[in-house]
UniProtKB/TrEMBL annotation:
Keywords: Signal, Transport. This is Probable sugar-binding periplasmic protein. Belongs to the bacterial solute-binding protein 1 family. SUPFAM superfamilies: Periplasmic binding protein-like II. Part of a binding-protein-dependent transport system for a sugar. It is found in: Periplasm. PANTHER family: ARABINOSE-BINDING PROTEIN-RELATED, BINDING PROTEIN COMPONENT OF ABC SUGAR TRANSPORTER-RELATED. Residues 1-27 form the signal peptide. It comes from Paraburkholderia caffeinilytica. Its main location: periplasm.
Length: 422
């Protein structure tokens, strides 16, 4: 009996020692910031090194937790599991409504003091702040602004076939015909729901313009969603489907980009993270490739802003998390990061020097859209509508793209799906 007691006591002391050891490990860990993200393509990974270096300069090391999968679906699933086991990362890449959702659950570290010190309120455009804040408080820090209504084209193919950037959707269809006849794939596409949704962003804008896009995709107005204009957007999708190669299913977005880089395909419709791949491959705009707005969306700006939220994790971790947030918003970081990533800075005071012609165009487009009040969030990347409606729309769009459904039936299905999701 007594020996049993002694054994128990020894076990307790050992556990105590272990806990002690643990604590010191935690203390050491406080100089490290775990960052979860889905930036695993060549261009994406390269841009992150800018942020890693800045964090290092602030005296913190970077614990990398990459979860592959463009658009971030897989990463968000892993995050939910980590939260469920009470072990969230220090910082997580987030899009759109996720920040508000997690802030409402009181899981995020408020960044108000860092934001006040850095003057973020004045530096960040209002449509971007909308996704950084919940209840008037800063909970996320934006690192970039992408836009989705772009076409990336192989210049050699365009020159060979004497093509110029198509100004209307019909011109795009005619160009695609010529490209196919010349033996190239007109459109490089990766058959994943988020990529089809990304194309749909442009199709909806092209069919109806910013007011229609806002009514349908942001305000979820049933009349707009069920309209003839929406039918036109689906008709564009049907024609785009005819431009892809037979092996598109499941292809990652960056592999589709590389088809354009290597001259197998002529074009890709994708957010400007695609430009990060061209840059990473040593390609130059105007020389090797062309960036053009999707026909019918010139001057329009469908934005995606990548932000980082930090999780509440006790006072020992907070300084690291705050240092990370400061690093993200650093003026030099925003310039260097975005020059590699293909995006533009989320703060308005970064000069355009050092950005290529596509970056400068994007900056000008964003400023014009801001002025006109037409800067609209991407449906595909969760910046237009809450998650439940986004998922419902994804299903309809991707089903349509991968079947022979008529545009009229797709519109009806879209109305029902959105109504049920509200
Ligand atoms: C988006 C993200 C972009 C880009 C893309 C592909 O969701 O906003 O920054 O990385 O996914 O991974």
């Amino acid at each position: 009996m007594e020996t049993k007691m002694i054994k128990k006591r020894i076990a307790a002391i050992a556990a105590g020692l272990l806990a002690c050891h643990c604590l010191s490990a935690v203390a050491a860990d406080a100089r490290q910031v775990e960052v979860m993200h889905w930036w695993t393509s060549g261009g994406e990974a390269k841009s992150l090194s800018v942020l890693k270096d800045e964090l290092k300069q602030k005296g913190y090391s970077w614990k990398d937790s990459p979860i592959a999968g463009g658009g971030g679906e897989a990463a968000r699933t892993v995050l939910r599991a980590r939260i469920a086991s009470n072990n969230p990362p220090d910082a997580m890449q987030m899009l759109g409504f996720s920040v508000q959702d997690y802030a409402e659950q009181s899981l995020l570290n408020p960044l108000d003091s860092v934001a006040a010190k850095g003057g973020w309120d004045k530096l960040v455009p209002a449509p971007i702040q909308r996704f950084s804040k919940a209840d008037g408080h800063w909970y996320a820090v934006p690192i970039d602004v992408h836009s989705t209504n772009w076409i990336w084209a192989n210049k050699k193919i365009f020159d060979e076939l004497k093509l110029t950037p198509p100004q209307t959707f019909d011109e795009l269809v005619a160009d695609a015909d010529k490209i196919r006849k010349a033996g190239y794939i007109p459109l490089a596409h990766g058959g994943q729901a988020w990529q089809e949704a990304t194309i749909f962003d442009s199709a909806v804008m092209s069919a109806g313009g910013p007011k229609f896009y806002t009514d349908a995709m942001v305000n979820l107005d049933t009349r707009a969603i069920g309209s003839k204009t929406m039918e036109k957007a689906f008709e564009q999708m049907r024609k785009l489907r005819g431009m892809v190669d037979p092996n598109f299913s499941g292809r990652d977005w960056n592999l589709a980009t590389s088809m354009v880089i290597t001259g197998k395909a002529a074009m890709q419709i994708m957010g400007d993270w695609a430009k990060g791949e061209f840059t990473n491959a040593g390609k130059k705009p105007g020389v090797d490739y062309l960036c053009m707005r999707y026909p019918g969306t010139q001057g329009d700006f469908i934005f995606v802003t990548d932000q980082f939220a930090t999780f509440k994790a006790g006072t020992d971790r907070q300084p690291g998390e705050n240092a990370f947030a400061e690093a993200v918003m650093d003026k030099g970081v925003q310039a260097r990061f975005n020059q590699v990533k293909g995006a533009i800075p989320a703060r308005l005071d970064v000069p355009s020097d050092g950005f290529d012609e596509c970056g400068v165009k994007s900056m000008n487009d964003m400023r014009a859209a801001l002025k006109n009040g037409t800067m609209v969030g991407s449906f595909a990347h969760g910046q237009a509508m809450p998650e439940s409606s986004k998922t419902a729309m994804y299903d309809v769009v991707t089903h349509f793209f991968n079947s022979n459904q008529s545009s009229a039936d797709a519109v009806k299905a879209l109305v029902t799906a959105v109504e049920n999701s509200k």
